[in-house]
Amino acid sequence: MGNSAAERGLRSAREEKKMKSFDVAIDGPSGAGKSSLARRCAAELGLLYVDTGAIYRTVGLAALRRGVDRKDETAVAAILPELEIQMAYEDGEQRMYLNGEDVSREIRMPEISMCASDVSAHAAVRSFLLEMQRKLARENCVIMDGRDIGTVVLPEAKLKIYLTASPEARADRRMKELVAKGVEQPYEEVLRDIIQRDEQDMNREVAPLRQAEDAVLVDTTEIDFDESFRLLCGIIRERMEAEA
Which of 26, 47, 34 is nearest to 216 (CA)? Predict the structure, then answer.
């Protein structure tokens, strides 16, 4: 972590939290809507939203910019000491900074998805970022989403959720997001990327994507965003009340 805006945002979140400790771990495949749903639920319930995928995307962007072979763990590990990654909260939105540069928009470009998947497969990268994620959960009441939050990062989380949807539904949603950002990409290509990302995330040697044994399964294939939000928020609120 860094200082300035990032630290002010986290201090504010700590001061405003209503519970002594409460953490929600949301895992699931790419394009399942984890970030959008977790962000909205966090705002509704007064929790701090942590998009861990954005952190890995930032490392992936750094590797891409430096021309590093992202599948070569030694090469990727060599650039880690040179990276200063900061997370800031501005107007309730998480922003990512790479060596002082706001890269929040750049990390959402389609090609960065596979970059993030490549670098996240390396134990060196996961170790490099693990303490940052756990520190956020120790000091705040959080909703944290990613691929291995409930299985590795926060194995003792008060609530674990595995959020998923069919590849076709996820591709359709991703297409709408890209169009809204002015990015053109054929549906077939988006679907292929999602299936490839699933295969890579689920079969990597280090912290593969899987549903934790005690996670609540939430499949949003047949329901829209608002219905998914109400369902997810209801599950979290019920557990928060039980823990209060």
Answer: 26
Give 143's contacts (C-beta < 8 A, 6+ positions apart). Answer: 23, 24, 26, 38, 41, 42, 45, 47, 48, 49, 50, 236
User: Residue 2 has what pLDDT?
Assistant: 46
Q: Are 125 and 77 in contact (CB under 8 A)?
A: yes
- Say if CB 157 and CB 28 are below 8 A apart: no
CB neighbours of residue 91 within 10 Å: 6
Angle at 92 between CA 8 and CA 152, to 5 degrees: 85
Taking the alpha carbons at both ends of the chain, their separation in whole angstroms is 29
d(C-alpha 49, C-alpha 93), whole Å: 9
| DSSP-derived 3-state class of residue 241 | helix
Task: Please check the confidence at residue 241 and state whether its pLDDT lies above 90.
Answer: yes
Strands 101-102 and 93-98: antiparallel
The SS3 assignment for 122 reads coil
Q: What percent of the chain has pLDDT over 90?
A: 70
Could you tell me which residues come within 8 angstroms of residue 19 by beta carbon, excluding any fewer than 6 positions away? 141, 240, 243, 244
Q: How far apart are CA 218 and CA 227, in angstroms?
A: 12
C-alpha atoms less than 13 angstroms from C-alpha of 119 in its C-beta half-sphere: 30
Residue closest to 5 by CA, chosen among 104, 83, 80: 104
Q: With left for phi above 0 and alpha for psi between -120 and 50, is residue 137 left, alpha or beta?
A: alpha
